[in-house]
Structures are given as structure tokens and as C-alpha cells.
Amino acid sequence: MELLYIANIRLPTEKAHGIQIMKTCEALADAGVNVELVVPRRKNHIRENPFEYYGVDQSFKVTYLWCLDLVKWGRFGYWIEMLTFAERTVWHVLFKKGTFYTRDEFLAFYLKLIGKKVTWEVHMGQKNFFALLLVWLKVPMVVISDGLKDLYISLGVNPKNIQVIPDGVDLNLFNKKITRREARDRLGLSESAKIVVYTGSLYPWKGVDILAEAAKILPAETLVVFVGGTEPDVKQFKNKFGGVKNVAIIGHRDHSEIPLWQKAADVLVLPNTAKENISKYYTSPMKLFEYMASRRPIVASNIPSIAEILNDSNAVLVLPDDPQDLARGVEEILKNKNDSVALADKAYQDVLQHTWEQRAGRILQFISK
């Protein structure tokens, strides 16, 4: 099978969607698919080869196409970039056959318009003009949560034309054969401290402010560590919470280093808000599956998107947007070692169904229909 994955992203990127796209392409290639990833050639402060940056096998082709890179000009600049990339994409794929796959509704529409067999992978719950056109045109959809499936069925999608396939994890990377003490030694962390870790973006809908507020309630000897975020987001977050004594804001780290931070933790936290639909219903956080693969106990917000994967048998679920209850959940884990080990073990067993390889298999099964 020939599959062209069209992605309007800066590659490499420090954002999570870059990992998700590269890992999906790698898993599809490992399944025997001839994969070509097509991306725009944009200005990039990351100089590394994308295969090296993400630790991905060079088992598929990455093609860079020219675009007018004016994204820094805001929304108007983004539209110029998108239109010029789409124009070049059409000429690149016009005479190519096979299956086309993208996360961008505008590109999906463009590809459908020129007669290509395209599948749209949805992450954000878009309801704009092009998304509604794709619904009307009956373009097959892969969505990452039940909440997204419910949304698009309510907009008129035939249930047979939509498939829920959550994100995945690289077990070899996140189930590292390393002890908590060894991980802390390598990261320069105290062996005796109680350490709570959050890894990922610092967007408000991720609930990071709630976790920082919970840190103020937790005992002073409990260190709450934030790993990740873009430079502007880290700066803003430090301005708000850098003065909290038991909060450590580490900033962006290479994806290959994230498993060490998770292995060093006593508790891993997923504090997503319930105030925004993207968080409450639509998301399928990669960090969730990475946490589960790390075999460390998880405290998470009890919201529909998270509850699709986590439950009382594999995590401690707490009230969303409630620092007091989040602190309670963390202390519950820290005080009940036997229970926390059982939760972590169950989470690991559950995540065995969510590897990138299995995700690729579900995608191929769906698009082959």
C-alpha cells in the first residue's frame, strides 16, 4: 500500500504533534506500508534531522515542499503559508496514487477536490467551513476520542465512516529498565524527596495552573516538577509560579529524556481542565499513555476524555479544576505505597493495547474498508 501523509507543520517541532505524526508514520512503515510524509519547508531553529530528533527509524520518506513562510505574521500569514503549501502539495501529488492521510481539514478538502482517496484524522473538534464540507463529502474520519466521534455524528457523519483510534506510546522508550534512584541520579534529583511530575505543554487547558496551586497545599518537602513547554510559555509560567518553593519548572527537554523524568517520579499528574471542550471531551493525551507505560502511579482529572482510558482500577481520579482535591489525590498515592504499585501495574497492563504499532494496525484496517 502507498500512503502519503500530508502535514502542514514545522518539522522537527518541539510540540507533541510532531512526535505523534512521526511515530504514526514509523509504525505504518513497519507494517509494510510505503509511507511518504509531506511537510512545508519552513524556517526552523531546530537543526537536527527529524529522524534523529525523534529517535525514529528512517523507514519512510520525508518530502519538504516550498511555501511562503509568513506564519509569524499571525492569522493572515498562516493562511498565506497554508495556501502556498497546499498549491505545491497539489502539484506534488497530482499524478500519485494511493491513500492520502492528513490532520488538516483544509488539506483534506483540497485533496478530495482533486479526486484523491483521503482520510482526515481529527484532534481538535473543528466545526469550521472546511470541516463541515468534509462531513458533507463523506470523507472518512479517524478521531482520537469518543467525544469527537459523538460530535461529528451529531453533525451528520455516518457512524460507519468514523473510527475512534486514540494516541499511542513507544513501550521500548518509556518502560525503561531503570530504577527510580538511577533516574534521579542522572537528573540530579534528591533520592529522599517526594517528587510529583508533570510532562508536556503548559497551555492553560492542560490544567498546569491547577497543579501549581495544588503544590502550595502539598507538604513543603513534596517537589512538583514541570517538564516541557515552549520558551514563551515557560517564561510566562515562571512569572506566575516560579516563586513557589516546592515547584521546579524545568522547561523543554528532548523527548528521549522525558522517560527519565517519569521514572524519577513518585506520582505522575494529568490535571486537565473541564472548562474547555478540547480538554473535557476531545483530547487523547500522549502523556497519558507515556505515564501508563512508565509504571508510576497516576493522578488525573475525572473528565470524559481521560475516563475513556483511566478508571479507579488504574489511577486516582480527582475533581477537575480543584487544587484541593488534586492535592488530596497526590497525598493518597504517597501514603499508600501498596495501592499505588497496584494502580501502576494495572495501568501498564492496560496500555499494552495502545502501542503505536497497534494504532497503525487499526488505521490500516479502517482505511482499507
Give me the secondary-structure topology.
Layout: E1 2-6, H1 16-30, E2 34-40, H2 50-54, E3 61-65, H3 75-93, E4 99-102, H4 105-113, E5 117-122, H5 129-136, E6 141-143, H6 146-154, E7 162-164, H7 171-174, H8 180-187, E8 194-199, H9 208-217, E9 222-227, H10 231-241, E10 247-251, H11 258-263, E11 267-270, H12 277-282, H13 286-293, E12 298-301, H14 304-307, E13 316-318, H15 323-335, H16 337-351, H17 356-367
Parallel strand pairs: 1-2, 1-4, 2-3, 4-5, 5-6, 6-7, 8-9, 8-11, 9-10, 11-12, 12-13
Helix pairs in contact: 1-17, 4-5, 9-15
Per CATH, which architecture of the largest domain? Answer: 3-Layer(aba) Sandwich
For the termini, the CA-CA separation is: 13 Å
| Silhouette | globular
Instruction: Give the class-level CATH name of the largest domain.
Output: Alpha Beta
Task: Report strand %.
Answer: 15-25%
SSE run: EHEHEHEHEHEHEHHEHEHEHEHHEHEHHH
Tally of extended strands? Answer: 13
The helix content is 40-55%
The CATH homologous superfamily of the largest domain is called Glycogen Phosphorylase B
| CATH T-level topology of the largest domain | Rossmann fold
Rg over alpha carbons: 21 Å
Low-confidence stretches: none
Q: Can you describe what's shown?
A:
The chain has 369 residues and is of the alpha/beta class. It has two domains: 2-168 and 355-367, Rossmann fold; 171-351, Rossmann fold (3-Layer(aba) Sandwich). 44% of the residues lie in helices and 17% in strands. The chain has 17 helices and 13 strands. It has helices at residues 16-30, 50-54, 75-93, 105-113, 129-136, 146-154, 171-174, 180-187, 208-217, 231-241, 258-263, 277-282, 286-293, 304-307, 323-335, 337-351, 356-367; strands at residues 2-6, 34-40, 61-65, 99-102, 117-122, 141-143, 162-164, 194-199, 222-227, 247-251, 267-270, 298-301, 316-318. It has a seven-stranded parallel beta sheet with strand order 3-2-1-4-5-6-7, sandwiched between helices. Strand 2 (34-40), helix 2 and strand 3 (61-65) form a beta-alpha-beta unit. The longest helix is centred in the first third of the chain and has 19 residues, at 75-93. The radius of gyration is 21 Å and the shape is globular. The two termini are 13 Å apart. The relative contact order is 0.12.
